[in-house]
Amino acid sequence: MVGIGQCSLDHVCQVDGPPEFAGKAPIFAHREEPGGQVATALLACARLGLRACFVGTVGEDAAATRVLAPLREAGIDLSGVRRVERARTQLAVILVDRASGERTVLWHRDPALALRPSDVPREAIATAGALHLDASDPDVAAFAAKLAREAGRPVFLDADTAVPGMAELLAQVDFPIVSRGFARSFFGTDSPREALRGLASFGGRLAVVTLGELGALARQGEQVIESPGFRVAVRDTTGAGDAFHAAFLWAVLAGRGARAALRLANAAAAMNCRALGAQGGLPGRGALERFLAQESPRPWQEP
């Protein structure tokens, strides 16, 4: 599979709740950890047994080496990574509440890191099992998705921010999986069910709105699927969505049905929440299967 999008060096800071604006607050623990939506999802895919190729950009700095190291160690093809002269690798400051594990992300991406159409590996996409995208560069993502569609390859999308060009991108995606925040801002409704109806109208095979600890809501044709999440001791919710995307993609490629794929995705997301950092708790296939054999989802709760 091919993944095109972000990688990041995350400064993970444990705090007691969100700081008051214009005030001061202590950091109780600080770690630098690799992250980024697509990079983390590809690492999770590799741990589940998929071969992957990452296409993205990094700066000419030490952070680039740190960010790419776990991908290289997992055997992910990095030939599609472009190093940008005089640029800094994308970074994020992630404030993690010590009590709940919920996080707030502050990020910075040098404009020079923007992907270009020439970065898109046409041959790799044409022969890949799937294409996974984020929406950091929606025009380039739409271009890549069109190539994949023309080659008969399924396209998966991770969208958490509504940006210009999103409608054109959604029209080229088979499996759009969006956050509740995206659903609210893009469709202008607080109802995930109404947003899901709008998401499905773009013509994908299966549309999904993720709901954090509650799980996910999906639509396949006229069928709406309620997929509850799992209860775990949450340490850090960073990367939960990335783990969700990876396990869902893996399950679809393995021929699992929609309900089974969503259950696997919710389980992987929950497992990753038990460790600090976006990539701290990404499960392998054996660990994921053991978790599912031992744990049951929480009862469905309407969001």
Would you give an account of this structure?
- A hairpin with a 2-residue loop joins strand 12 (215-220) and strand 13.
- The protein is globular and about 50 Å long.
- The chain is α/β, with parallel strands linked by helices and 303 residues long.
- The strands form 2 sheets. Strands 5-4-1-8-9-10-11-12-13 form a 9-stranded mixed beta sheet, sandwiched between helices. The protein has a 4-stranded mixed beta sheet with strand order 3-2-6-7.
- The chain has helices at 37-47, 62-73, 122-127, 138-150, 166-170, 180-187, 192-200, 240-253, 258-272, 285-294, and strands at residues 2-4, 8-15, 29-35, 53-59, 77-84, 91-97, 103-108, 131-134, 155-159, 175-179, 207-210, 215-220, 223-228.
- The two termini are 33 Å apart.
Task: List descriptors.
single chain, 303 residues, alpha/beta, 9-stranded mixed sheet, 4-stranded mixed sheet, globular
Radius of gyration of CA atoms, rounded to a whole number: 18 Å
Strand arrangement, largest sheet? 5-4-1-8-9-10-11-12-13
What gap, in angstroms, lies between the N and C termini?
Answer: 33 Å
Q: Based on CA inertia axes, which overall geometry fits?
A: globular
Helices, strands, pairings?
Elements: E1 2-4, E2 8-15, E3 29-35, H1 37-47, E4 53-59, H2 62-73, E5 77-84, E6 91-97, E7 103-108, H3 122-127, E8 131-134, H4 138-150, E9 155-159, H5 166-170, E10 175-179, H6 180-187, H7 192-200, E11 207-210, E12 215-220, E13 223-228, H8 240-253, H9 258-272, H10 285-294
Parallel strand pairs: 1-4, 1-8, 2-6, 4-5, 8-9, 9-10, 10-11
Antiparallel strand pairs: 2-3, 6-7, 11-12, 12-13
